[in-house]
Amino acid sequence: MSDLRIRFRKEYLSQLHQRSTIRTQVYKPKIGDIVLLWSENLKRIHWPLGRILPIYASKDGIVRRARIKTKSGIVIRPIRKLCPLELDGESLITNEARSS
Question: Which of 35, 45, 61, 84 is most buried (most C-beta within 10 Å)?
Fold first, then answer.
């Protein structure tokens, strides 16, 4: 089990973070997206996992914050400190329907 955790940390999470930082598009969060909450005090493997609840736009209409439900409670974080996982539930259902 520890080998799986080490491999997950080294391979998947590092690629996920690299992909989210070099994107040409800006991440547009949706309610229900699963994200990792970036933290400079924790190793990537220990970043909390959460689900986006409501999102909040600033006066200029750009989404800048989101309310996130985590295992330990509900927090509000800036979008730039969220690391989205590859697929949300809606995308997964759409892709499965296409392949059937």
Answer: 35
- Over residues 23-59, the pLDDT tens digits come to 445 678 899 999 999 988 988 888 999 999 999 999 9
Fold of the CATH domain 25-93: SH3 type barrels. (2.30.30)
Element (H, E) at 90: helix 89-99
Q: State pTM to two decimals.
A: 0.60
Exposure letters 7-31 (e unless 16+ CB within 10 A, then b) = eeeeeebeebeeebeeeeeeeebee
For the chain, the domains span 25-93
